[in-house]
Structures are given as C-alpha cells and as structure tokens.
C-alpha cells in the first residue's frame, strides 16, 4: 500500500468516526460522509458539455430581445483631468445611431457599491459612473453609443471628438511609492501581523535569505468577453449577464438605480470563465442607463480591448521575503512584507501574505502589506488573489534557503511543518501536505534531481526540476440557501442562485444531491444562475461548492422532515426521526436498518401530493472560526532552458493536491490543470504593460498580452489525497483557485535548478536568462 493509500484509509476511518457530529460545530450528522454509493467522486463528464458543443447553451450576449440595440464605448485617452469638449454631433448623425450618452445626458445614478464592502456589493470601484466631466483613469468610458447594429455603433463611436484639460496623475509604481504608502486591509482585517521580533531573530539566525520579488499587473482574459443583454419594463430591469454573483448583481444594480432589489432580475445560466473578473463593472451600469434613456433593450459586449480598459485585473506587487533558520533548518524568523499598487477607489490590496500566515511554523513572524495609490483602472480579485503571487515570493525564498543550506527543499519544508496554525494557534481541520509532497516526489521522480544547478544538459538545453507548496484557504460565505421540489414521479429539482462558469459545479452538485436523496443522476436537475432562486452565493473564493453543499444539505434535512410528516401509520417509516434517515433507492431508508424504507413516490401518492417543495438556509459558516482550514498542494515542475536563447520550455508538471474529498474526479482534475496552466502564464508570460507617462495599458489584447497556448503547456499530471475534511460540508474543500498557487515558484525554482539563474521578477522571460 502506498503512503497515500495508508493515510487515506486512516483518515477516512477517523473522519467517518467523527463526522456524525463534527463537520461543523453544533451541526447534525451528515450521513453523506459515512454512506456512499459511488456517485461522489465519480469522473462524470459535464452535464452541460453537449449543450455547449452544440451551441445550445445561451451566454449573456446571445439572448434575443425584441427591438434590441447594440452598445459601443468610447474610452478616455488621458489618465486624469476634465473633459472640456465632447462633440457627439457626427456620431449622432451616423447611420443607425439611436443614442449617444455622455455625462451631459446620462441619468442620475449612485456609484457601484464596492465589492466586499457590503454582503451583496459587487462593484469594481465606487467612482461615479458618467456623472460628471472628471476622468479618473486612462481608458475610462466617457461616451456610449447605441445603434441598430454593432458595426454601426462601433463606427459611430469613432466619430466622437473629445478635448481634455489634463491634470497631473500618478501612473507609475515608483511615483506612487514615493508619495507614501498606507496599510492594506482585507475583508476588514489589517494585512499586518507580528509575532516576536522577527528582524532580531533574522539577524541572529544561523542561515538566512533576504530578497525582494516583484510581480506585474495581470489582466483578466476569460474566453467569454464581458457582456450583458438587458431591458427595462417600467421600473423593472432584467439583465442576462455573465456573472459570478447573480444575487450580488441584482442588489447592486437596484442600489445604483434606486429601485428595490426584487425589481432586478439577473440571469446568468452559463459563464465562459470568471476568475474573479465577472463582477459588476461600469459597462453594466452604462448599458442599463442607456437602455432607460433610449427606451430600448440593449446588448453590450466589451471588445477584448474593452475588457482591458473597463475590467480590473491583478495588481502588481513588490515583496520582501526574509527567512532566518537554525542549523537544522527550523525557521526562527519568517518575514514577508511589501507594497502593492491600488487605486483610491477599490478595496483589493493583493493580500500576498496569506500563505505565510499558515504554511510554516516559525519562531517569529513579521507580515505586512502596504498600499501605494495610482490613478489607474481599479484592480480586483483574480484567481487566488494573494496566494498566486504570494507563493511565488515565499516559495522561491524557501528554495533559495534550501540551496544555501545544501538541503533538499522538500525536506526543509517538512522540517517546518506546523502542528497547528502557526499564527492563530487554531487546529488544522485536515492537513496532509507531507503526504502530498511524498506522493508527488515519488511519482515525479524527484530523486533524479541534482542538488547542483546546471548539472543536467541535453544539447543546448539545461534541464532542471523545482517544487513549491500550493495553498489556498477554505472559505464558506454566509447566505447559502436552496429549494428542493420533489415530484411524485421521483424527480428532484434543486434551485440555488449559484453559478456555472465552466468549473463543473452543476455536474458535481447533481452528483452530491443524487447521492443525498438516493436518486439516480437523471432524476435530479440542478438549477442555477438566476437571482430569483434562493441564496446569495458567490462563485468566488473557491467556496461555491461548500456554500451550495451546505445549503442543499439543509434543504434535504427539511425535505426529510416534511416527508416524515406525510408518513402516516401505514408507512414503515412511521415514528422515525429525520436524522435516522438517508435517501436510498428513490426513497427514504433507515440508516441502521436499510430494509425499513419507502419510496418518495409512495409517500407522496399516499398523501395525495403531486409535489413537495422545501427551502432552507445553510447554517452560519462557523467551521472556519474553529479550525484553520486550507487546501494544500505540492507542485513539481521540470523545465528546459536554452543556453543560447534563454527560452524556457516547461517539459513536465505535476500537481499533488490535498483538498479534502474530491466530488468529481474529472471536473476537479480540470480545475487543477486549468489553474496550473494559468500559473504557467503567471510564471512565464503574463504581464500588463502600462505606459508610465500616461497610464495607458499598451498591450490590450491577445496579440500583445501573452497567455499560454497549447504549445506552451506540457502534459500536466494531477493526483490528490482524497482525504475528506471532517469539518467541511461534504468533506470537500475548494479546488478552483489552488491550482494557480505555487506554480510561479515551482517554475522559477526549476529554472534555477536548470541554469543557476535566480529570477525574482515575473514573468521569467528570456531576456532575464541570457547574459
Ligand atoms: Mo475568485 S478570484 O475568488 O473568482
């Protein structure tokens, strides 16, 4: 038996033993952990796959509406100042044009409620939207054209003439830092933590590293462009959107237009990738405002350039990591501090210190994120904000320390494996990163790696291996709720205002629900992507699965209780308590007496009911307060660096994960791989170039902004422990974001091992590798 299999067996036994009371404090038993028929974890293909390949899945820009007109945006070309003249006459006279909207005729609107500032706020910044003549960043929309066709709108917008009174702007990171920094806060908490005197411990340490790592701005590049098709009916607004927060969108748009949130109906059945960028940006607000002015339904779809002008991405960071270690490798000091760029009007100081809070034991800690303020487009969440770039710095530094100490970098990490959360003292809910490292090392052939850089050569190619820790927290946001409609034919419809952005959410949740209710998958329909469904569920923070799962569990308990009320004396289940029951073979059965059962159809038929509808809210997310909860991973990379050109080719990659129970082996593997592919982009190519003279993004499109293409991506191997987390609903922690974490460092560490060059500035382009 392998190390992993042994660990899994031990922990599954323990998890099952504790699960009945312990997936969260004060909860009732979740029989799902103890009772399985094989659907959970099965590699089931996405149920929406056929719809997508047939073009039947309708995306935001594909909803037809009678009398619809098309929008195009005009973007400012200066970073800061006032609009002096805005000549729209030629645009208005152009063929097909219905409306040109500027700050002079836009209706009065409140600013976008800033994401994370309130429960359902979804806005990328809280600046006024086309309410005055002010320009706040280079690329800000200053006019919107509506026309009968997209081509007419695009042509007309080219006829708008603008003159600015330009004002001085802060458009370079260096200038922003020179003006001073302020402390960063994330989710209401300061991004600052000191335990002991880390600088003193560093100075006195037997071994130390102390280096600065920098990462650039990144843009969101979901394959589906940001789009919305919307219409007013009186004061009611319907928006077919590309959204990772339909309830958030509905509430936020209601705030902006001064109507009740029930008057806004947001649908978003399919989303072509979100990654943190499919939130509320001003194209939504402008399209809705223009629709109101014109009295016509509007479709807006940003061009790829438009996404770069309007939708924020990941900000740039400058991070110091310093580690002081004893002779045996144990950390006396862990310092991770630095500066990120932000605007004055968003709240996303890239929280790069999050991994250092929980990943390693150390005698002292000094963690701090400071913010420098620029006049640019707001930055925002982007897959594993904080962890993706924070692990680049932290995990590179650990590799540097291991090299300096002539120690295997995996061994160094294992020597600093914490017993409990090193900065809060909370117990870990489940942490099997050492097993993940050991299994990964064995599979990847880590023992073939030379400790000496530059030792392996194949012609002009220097070949090296590197590894790094991946980590992402378990979150579950409050607000989860679900409705189950059970019909007499034994079919269950489950509704949650959740999102399917291509991750496989609907498929995995259909599996879980079918398992919970004891139904075959084709008797379960999971409905999502509509703000009129129950729940305030964000597809973000890798927490959607847990949020849905806990809500569906609550609804299932309610359903069982209601069914029992229908079971009269004639029912074999009469007198049972709902906690004793499980769903099995299309009905209810006693957990400890499977022979005692009755089908849903029989229960409903006897009660003369065609259907039973229940709705319930998820319990508050207390589990993450009691335990330190994180997904873990060990990333292994092999690269080939050309000695002549400096070109880096990733030749092999393995992700070995510990994320709790895996709900669907196929869609989870796809999430891991997708995260790793995005991580290869972060490591080797992604970089938003800003003209520092005027704050203009210069590479606003796929021709100039490079993301990995097929030829850049080797076969990616993924394995996982599948050890259930006894304290997470369904035993599952998130898998959406962890895949990108650790990849930047695994690549950088492999490059160092290949050629002896330590690159501390992402991306690792060839100019940094040729002498
Ligand atoms: Mo993710 S950055 O929380 O969509």
TrEMBL record:
Residues 54-168 form the Aldehyde oxidase/xanthine dehydrogenase a/b hammerhead domain. SUPFAM superfamilies: CO dehydrogenase molybdoprotein N-domain-like, Molybdenum cofactor-binding domain. It is an enzyme of class 1 (oxidoreductase). It holds the Pfam family MoCoBD_1. InterPro entries: Ald_Oxase/Xan_DH_a/b (IPR000674), Ald_Oxase/Xan_DH_a/b_sf (IPR036856), Ald_Oxase/xanthine_DH-like (IPR016208), AldOxase/xan_DH_MoCoBD1 (IPR008274), AldOxase/xan_DH_MoCoBD2 (IPR046867), AldOxase/xan_DH_Mopterin-bd_sf (IPR037165). Keywords: Molybdenum, Oxidoreductase. The keyword Oxidoreductase applies. It comes from Variovorax paradoxus. One of its GO terms (molecular function) is iron ion binding. This is Xanthine dehydrogenase molybdenum-binding subunit. It comes from the Bacteria. PANTHER family: ALDEHYDE OXIDASE 1-RELATED, XANTHINE DEHYDROGENASE. Its EC number is 1.17.1.4.
